[in-house]
Write a structure and sequence with these properties.
This protein is α+β, with helices and mostly antiparallel strands. The chain contains six helices and six strands; from the N terminus they run H-H-E-E-H-H-E-E-H-E-E-H.
Length: 181
Amino acid sequence: MVFVNSRAVAPEAVRPPTLETVGLDFDHDIELVLAFLNTCDAEKGTETLDDHDQWQQWCTDRSLGTAPGVEAAREIRDSMRSAVSYGVPPPTLSTAWPVQVRLHRGIPVLTGVDALGTVLVAAARLVHTGHWDRVKICPADDCLVAFYDRSRNRSRTWCSMRVCGNREKARSWRERHTTSA
């Protein structure tokens, strides 16, 4: 039996760049997309995309660069929200938005040319990596918060079981016991 030193036969291979070396951070993408989807707040009755100054401030707070018009941002946000909402068919909206492909250490990476492009690139990365299916909208009419389902079997329904889930379960329990009496 002959033993061969594998390093003598084949030199150690140079590893290709990983996601970290090109700066891809899915947690950041998730946070950015959720923040964008939550620019409207049903509970407080606020809408960031009603005013260009508020929208610009939102973009500045996240270092996203130039804020395009609020109408386009609202249209895209509403389309994305309906795509992840329970029982709401997404609109047939087909909007194109400019993005760039840059080479970073030889790896092509999508980047946005403005704030909305950056949000859309983050959302596209979530779609292509299978994370998009975990973005959901809380079905409580007085909440409607976008959240990320981190449950193992992707079965989470409510943004918070302590608040919205508990409230809905208590409501349905009252309805069952009121009608049966």
